[in-house]
Structures are given as structure tokens and as C-alpha cells.
């Protein structure tokens, strides 16, 4: 069985890590892998997480299974973060814990296949490469809708809406809730509203991927899109991740939240998702979710988390301003969009050859798609990176 296998394709993330490790320059800059770095280039464990881990170590009475739905406090805290404690969206939703945002998306994809067989999933072009991979793995047909204008750094909203006009009642629309990966270009309130109108007309389902809550403009600001959907649509689903906003990457903390027309409908949808989760991982990992539940449930730790999150967010936005301003000094192109975009990523239209030159000649590492992780910039490297990007000529 194994002997006849072809050489597997190189894992792009592994390839990137190898190239970075092999670069011996003391000036090397990692703008590739989607991880937040502090001003010293480190990706530390948050203080609130350390405190919750200490608490967990001291007090956890057992490691017995919880349930396929996971940690109930974490699930309730997730719904409260999304819609606001006691809100209508909170009441009309139910959450299942999942291993990371990836697990939540896979669960959603399997569930959609069961509930809406034959339905297509409309995904933005470009999107996080794991989106098409996950949805194809569950047998979905995909349609790519135009999303990003690489010249202006804006959303191609009219073209997007024209393509989405072809959605049918069995189809699903995938949206990024905030901090679009890989472009950083988000929908504004009027655009969310127009999408809600369109979806109401077509009857299509909506799935929102919210992997960067709190890293754009703030916790409630970044939830504005899904809160608007909760006001306007009877039902939709949200996949969330605490990988970035709690820096819990390897602990695999995510969730799938289903919003129904009524609480009863949400409870029913949740009950249908549970047996799907059972076939995927049976029980989700507990450690990270227990940490998040404790931090969000303890007033002091929660304040600490909000401060640490604000530090990350402010640093990203400062680096956006710095990169945009420095690039502006290099020619005619208007780089104001970098400062207006949100989240960890932007795309400047750097070709694969340009990416290679940046790595070889300037020790600046990006993914081959030309995505820039702004959170890898700091006071010590931002000017040098901007000058290198300008030097490769096609930025
Ligand atoms: N969605 C998007 C858009 C992402 O960028 C990521 C992480 N790169 C995820 C989901 C999933 O993250 P994780 O599985 O690590 O929680």
C-alpha cells in the first residue's frame, strides 16, 4: 500500500519553517507563519493564561471525559463574547467546543453536507488556503467569489455581490467575521447589511469564520458583523478560534456556534451537530478551553486578558501605520490601505519571484502568496522591511 505512493507535495508551512531555520542572518524577519509576535519578536504565553494554568493545576479534580459538546462554561462564554451576555443572539444560539477554528470549520462543513446535501459553498478569493481544503475534504463543490482588489487594497464589493446573486437556497456563503486572512480587507457595516438583504432573498446559509476576534478594532467592534447578522437573519453559524486572541495556538481551542430562529431551533441544531462531532474527535481537548473559561469567568483575569489583547491589537495597528508611511515615501503607489486594513495580514501583490528575492537578498520571509504578517514587524525591523519591499519593485 505505501510502497507505490508518489512523493507527497511539500507542506508549505513546513517548507517555510525550514527556510527560516536555514537562514543564518541575524537580521532575518519572519512575516510568514500566522503568529503574533511582540516587539522583541517573541510569541509568549499570555500572563492571564499562565495564571489560569496555575489555577487549573491546583484545583482540577479529574480528567474524566466531559461531553462531546466540551466545556459548558467555555461554550457559554463564547456565545457571550460573540453576541453579548443576555442578548437575543446569546439566547438563540448554542455552542460546541471544537479542536481549534479548523475543527469548528470541519464540523460545520460535515454538518452542512448532511443538512443541505448538494449545496455549494461560496468562498472569497483569496481566502485562508485551508478553507477550500476543508470544504473539499467533505465533498463540497466550491464557488470562488471576487473579494480583494490587489491594486487598491479594498473589497471588490460590487463584483462580489454580483457573483453572490447566483446563490441558491441550498448554498452556503463563507464570510470572514473580521481581520480577513490573507488580505486584511474587511466588510463595513453597510456591506454586512447589504449581504444580509441578499442572503434573505436567496435563502442561502451563512457561515462566518471569526478567527481574530479582538485583534482588529476591539472585542465588540470586531463582532459587529455577526451581531448585525443576528439582528437580520433567522439562522447562521459561526466558527471561532482562541488560537490568536489568547495565543493558545497549540492547545487547539475553537468552537462552532449555531444561531437559530428560536432557542428551540438552536438547541435542535446543536443536537444534530453533536453526533457529527462524535465521529470526528468524540471529545474535544479540554486544557485550553478550561483556561479560556476561567479567564473569562474571573473579573480580574478577564481585565488582564483584555489589556493583553489591546496591547497586541495596538501594536499591530501601529505597525500597519509605520509600514504604510514608510512605503509611501518610496514612490507613487498609495499605501494608505495598509493602515486602513485590520488584523495580522495584508497582501501587497508581491509575486512569488519577489517573495524569493526578499528571502534571499533581504532575509525577509513571507508565504509564497505574498501575504505579509504585519504582526512580525517591530520597531527594529519595520523600516528595513519596507525598504526591502520597495526594492523588489513590484510591491
Ligand atoms: N480561520 C482562519 C481565517 C485562520 O486564519 C485560522 C488560523 N490560521 C483558522 C481559521 C484556524 O485556526 P486554528 O485552527 O489554529 O484555531
UniProtKB/TrEMBL annotation:
Domain of life: Bacteria
InterPro entries: Aminotransferase_I/II_large, Asp_trans, NHTrfase_class1_PyrdxlP-BS, PyrdxlP-dep_Trfase, PyrdxlP-dep_Trfase_major, PyrdxlP-dep_Trfase_small
KW Mitochondrion (keyword) present: no
Pfam family, any one: Aminotran_1_2
One GO term describing the cellular component: cytosol
Family matches, as SUPFAM superfamilies: PLP-dependent transferases
One term of GO molecular function: L-aspartate:2-oxoglutarate aminotransferase activity
Entry's EC annotation: 2.6.1.-
GO biological process, one term: L-phenylalanine biosynthetic process from chorismate via phenylpyruvate
Cofactor: pyridoxal 5'-phosphate
All residue ranges annotated as the Aminotransferase class I/classII large domain in the record: 27-389
Keyword annotations of the record: Aminotransferase, Pyridoxal phosphate, Transferase
Quaternary structure note: Homodimer.
Sequence similarity: Belongs to the class-I pyridoxal-phosphate-dependent aminotransferase family.
Stored PANTHER family: ASPARTATE AMINOTRANSFERASE, ASPARTATE AMINOTRANSFERASE, MITOCHONDRIAL
Record NCBIfam families: PRK09257.1
Listed name of the protein: Aminotransferase
Organism of origin: Sphingosinicella soli
Lineage: Bacteria, Pseudomonadati, Pseudomonadota, Alphaproteobacteria, Sphingomonadales
